[in-house]
Amino acid sequence: MTFRLILRNSSPPSVSPYRLLDEQDRELAWANAFLDAQRVRQLSLRSLRAYGYDLLHLARWLHLTRHPLAKINQSLLLDYARYQLDQLPKPTPSTINHRLGVLHCLYRFHYGREIPGGKAHFHRNYTTRSPLGYGRPHRRVTTALRLRQPRCVVVPLSADQVARFWNTFRTFRDLAIVALMLLDGLRSCEVLQLQLEDLSISEAHLRVLGKGNKKRVLPLPVEILEVLQNYLRCERPLTNSPFLFVSWKGRGRGLPMSAAGLRSLFRHHRLSSQVPQANPHRFRHTFGSDMVRAGMSLPALMHLMGHTQIHTTMIYVQLAPQDVWHEYARAVAQRVRLLSPEIS
């Protein structure tokens, strides 16, 4: 049986527009009921789409192995993880962990309890504490299977790479998009969701709708303000669209810029600049790393980047080897000065 995920834009606001169908175009009730519940929780369309593809993968595996959802236990969970590791191309540990997490949420949603044990059990005690080392440690218990993920290493773009990529742009709209990612740390989806009413040029700030529909206000440096003003004055076509960034040529002229359009834009300029590492998320990493190196406090950076957990912000507290040597040389020089006898 062939399952597929479709998008129905005509769905009411309380129903997920993403639907799972079988080969007869019948809805998978157990999957779509879960998606509808997430829609009621006000999850973003981006999150619903990710959940939909995870459920699609699960539905295909359940059909292949002839296991009903109600019979899932931790032994079958281990089989599901093993099945994914044997696939080519092999998914990343984070992808597998996300699928397993969605399966746990799905099971709790339908049956009101955790996935029971089988021949395999993943009961584990561990201790956590504040990421900054403060407070008393807390004992926690987990029963979930989770793959070990490699530590995330932030590799920001160099100043030369940024300059080469930046110099390939010729329109104010595209320069404004890159500037918002590089100088304000916006995500690509946040850039696309910006509306005209979110921009306050007179007060030099911008309202951003981030993950989980959480709003934050960001300052706009002079460099971004100038580019945005030129875009609005010279390039943005006359349109009724409330979105800040719209297409300015072709059949889509005046329509909101799409995620596919943004990907195509970056793909073209990666080739032109010969900077293959340049992508929206890498620019966000570059912003975070630059702010840490400039001495910005973690709470302030956490707010600017829209993080809900300081663990995420601390990813950027990673120094390159040359930075370590620089700090070492500075510290040694300071120590030598302190130990040197004064000459009278």
Give an account of the 3D structure:
- With 344 residues, this protein is mainly alpha-helical.
- The chain is 48% helix and 9% strand.
- It has a three-stranded antiparallel β-sheet with strand order 5-6-7.
- A hairpin with a 4-residue loop joins strand 5 and strand 6.
- The longest helix has 21 residues, at 45-65.
- The N and C termini lie far apart (91 Å).
- 23% of the residues are buried.
- The model has no long low-confidence stretch (mean pLDDT 87).
Short description:
The chain has helices at 29-40, 45-65, 74-85, 93-111, 159-166, 172-184, 188-193, 222-235, 259-273, 280-293, 298-305, 310-313, 321-339, and strands spanning 4-7, 18-21, 124-128, 138-142, 199-200, 205-209, 215-219.
In terms of DSSP E residues, the strand content is 5-15%
Gyration radius, to the nearest Å? 25 Å
Main beta sheet strand tally, sense and closure: 3 strands, antiparallel
Overall average residue pLDDT: 87
The N- to C-terminal Cα distance equals: 91 Å
- The low-pLDDT segments are none
Q: What CATH architecture label of the domain at 4-119 applies?
A: Orthogonal Bundle
Give the class-level CATH name of the domain at 4-119.
Mainly Alpha
User: Which strand order do you get reading across the main beta sheet?
Assistant: 5-6-7
Q: Topology as H/E string?
A: EEHHHHEEHHHEEEHHHHHH
Secondary-structure class: mainly alpha
Q: What is the fold-level CATH name, i.e. the topology of the domain at 4-119?
A: DNA polymerase, domain 1
- Give a count of the beta strands, DSSP E runs of length 2 or more: 7
Summed up, the helix count is 13
Helix share of residues? 40-55%
Globally, the shape reads globular
